[in-house]
């Protein structure tokens, strides 16, 4: 009898546990959560995005136009995009609606994609030893009130959060900040515009113009050195006054480099202003072992050669939000900066070269630094060190200046596909002109990490280790097995 009662109790407990498991499973099915263990929480919406979504006063409609017959290698991108959009919907708390539309399924959906401005993109891949080309849709349209923005091709999932949040921020903000550019005249010919890509990128977020002088109607200014504009004292005083509360990014040289590879003294006349702000602009040019390959030659004779005056660096202060999605930047002919003591300004070095860098100075005003790649001298070991090539200056009233001692940093013909110069400048302008609304939005995933600078001996060591280590381990294992058998 007692045995039967014990079995009944056990059966009841088991039934209750099963029932409890089913109830918990049912309740949890409506709740979704995940833990993000990726570096820097790359798969979690940034605090900047969450703040912008929280401030929305009207619903935002996001339509993801994507073909169901995507090439196989793009299917993971589709999945990641869907997951990101679901995060926006969850964080939007009812103010974000998501629609996934396949324009190839019916004519109405295709017409909607065309009206939204989403183009059909050509994808290519190698499948079963055959090169296949397919046309597909992979774009996003964002609607807010009577305004809209599009991301025509969103295969760059790494920066999708930034691009999507920037579009939402642009649509929802009350006023569009104005950005002024000094030192570069406005060019309407696309083929000859040195700032074409920069203007195109900035225009997505700001109203960009070219005023004759600095004024308080602009939230930020970009000042370029073109070796033609020489600032008068009253103009320097205006910049200084604007900087009491305004924001400025300087792209100016310590030494000017001509198209004929000749150096001369920079004409901008801003050395004294920077010195008052606590930064010394040196009259030198920096060279580095992290040299870029540059195309030299004349006529039909062309050759690529490592050119130390053009170099890359990833030695920047990653604690600053400007650099959250920046892997590497490139400098074509740059001078160095020195930080001076100042009670009125907080001065910080934000970009440096690697420690295998050196400098060249003009011996006299009439002499020229040797820029020909075949005439560059080799430095002594005691000349090699880090140099500051970017600085941030803040005052107590909220004014801020960023100094990039390179006038060609974002000019069209000097942009490198392997660098993030444009992204860095956009981050800086966003932070300065938008009160940091978009600052801190990180890359969703990182696929590329620049290799550390290695000497030739170190490179040889790694090469031979990779080649010989595995066969050596197998040989040792075989010898041990033979010895064990003998024993």
Molecular structure report:
The structure is a single chain. This protein is 30% helix and 26% strand. By secondary structure, the chain is α+β, with helices and mostly antiparallel strands. It has four domains: 1-31; 47-157, Glutaredoxin; 175-433, 3-Layer(aba) Sandwich (Rossmann fold); 459-487. Strands 7-6-8-9-22-21-19-16 form an eight-stranded mixed sheet, with helices on one face. Strands 1, 2, 3, 4 and 5 form a five-stranded mixed sheet that branches. Strands 14-15-17 form a three-stranded antiparallel sheet, with no helix packed on it. Strand 3 and strand 4 (130-144) form a beta hairpin. The N and C termini lie far apart (65 Å). The relative contact order is 0.11.
Task: Please outline what is shown here.
The chain is of the alpha+beta class. Helices cover 30% and strands 26% of the residues. The chain has four domains: 1-31; 47-157, Glutaredoxin; 175-433, Rossmann fold (3-Layer(aba) Sandwich), CATH 3.40.50; 459-487.
Summed up, the helix count is 10
Just give the CATH class of the largest domain: Alpha Beta
- Name of the CATH architecture of the largest domain: 3-Layer(aba) Sandwich
| Assembly of the depicted chains | single chain
Task: Tell me the count of domains.
Answer: 4
How large is the radius of gyration?
A: 29 Å
Task: Give me the secondary-structure category.
Answer: alpha+beta
Query: What is the CA-CA span between the terminal residues?
Result: 65 Å
Q: Tell me roughly what share of residues is in helical segments.
A: 25-40%
Low-confidence blocks of residues: 446-451
Under CATH, the topology of the largest domain is which? Answer: Rossmann fold
């Amino acid at each position: 009898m007692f045995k039967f009662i014990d079995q009944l109790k056990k059966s009841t407990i088991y039934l209750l546990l099963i029932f409890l498991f089913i109830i918990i499973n049912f309740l949890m099915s409506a709740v979704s959560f995940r833990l993000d263990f990726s570096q820097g929480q790359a798969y979690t919406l940034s605090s900047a995005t969450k703040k912008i979504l929280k401030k929305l006063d009207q619903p935002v409609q996001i339509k993801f136009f994507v073909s169901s017959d995507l090439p196989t290698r793009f299917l993971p991108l589709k999945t990641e995009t869907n997951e990101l959009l679901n995060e926006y919907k969850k964080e939007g708390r009812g103010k974000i609606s998501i629609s996934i539309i396949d324009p190839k399924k019916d004519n109405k959906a295709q017409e909607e994609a065309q009206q939204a401005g989403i183009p059909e993109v050509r994808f290519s891949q190698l499948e079963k030893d055959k090169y296949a080309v397919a046309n597909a849709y992979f774009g996003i349209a964002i609607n807010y009130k009577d305004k809209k923005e599009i991301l025509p091709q969103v295969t760059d999932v790494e920066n999708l959060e930034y691009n999507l949040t920037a579009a939402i921020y642009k649509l929802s903000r009350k006023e569009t900040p104005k950005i002024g550019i000094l030192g570069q005249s406005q060019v309407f010919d696309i083929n000859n515009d040195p700032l074409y890509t920069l203007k195109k990128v900035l225009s997505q977020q700001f109203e960009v113009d070219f005023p004759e002088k600095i004024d308080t109607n602009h939230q930020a200014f970009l000042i370029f050195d073109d070796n033609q504009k020489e600032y008068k004292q009253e103009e320097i005083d205006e910049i200084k006054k604007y900087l009491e509360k305004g924001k400025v990014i300087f792209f100016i040289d310590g030494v000017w480099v001509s198209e004929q590879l000749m150096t001369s003294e920079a004409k901008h006349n801003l050395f004294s202003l920077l010195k008052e702000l606590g930064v010394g602009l040196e009259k030198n040019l920096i060279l580095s072992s992290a040299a870029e390959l540059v195309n030299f030659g004349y006529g039909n004779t062309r050759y690529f050669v490592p050119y130390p005056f053009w170099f890359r660096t990833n030695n920047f202060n990653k604690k600053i939000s400007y650099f959250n999605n920046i892997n590497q930047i490139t400098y074509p002919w740059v001078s160095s900066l020195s930080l001076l003591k100042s009670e009125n300004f907080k001065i910080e070095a934000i970009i440096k070269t690697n420690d295998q860098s050196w400098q060249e100075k003009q011996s006299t005003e009439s002499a020229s630094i040797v820029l020909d790649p075949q005439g560059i001298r080799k430095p002594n070991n005691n000349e090699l060190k880090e140099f500051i090539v970017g600085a941030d200056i803040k005052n107590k009233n909220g004014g801020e200046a960023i100094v990039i001692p390179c006038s060609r940093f974002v000019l069209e013909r000097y942009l490198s596909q392997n660098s993030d110069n444009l992204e860095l400048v956009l981050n800086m302008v966003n932070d300065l002109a938008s009160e940091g609304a978009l600052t801190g939005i990180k890359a969703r995933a990182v696929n590329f990490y620049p290799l550390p600078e290695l000497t030739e001996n170190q490179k040889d060591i790694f090469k031979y280790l990779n080649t010989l280590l595995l066969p050596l381990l197998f040989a040792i294992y075989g010898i041990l097995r033979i010895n064990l058998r003998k024993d």
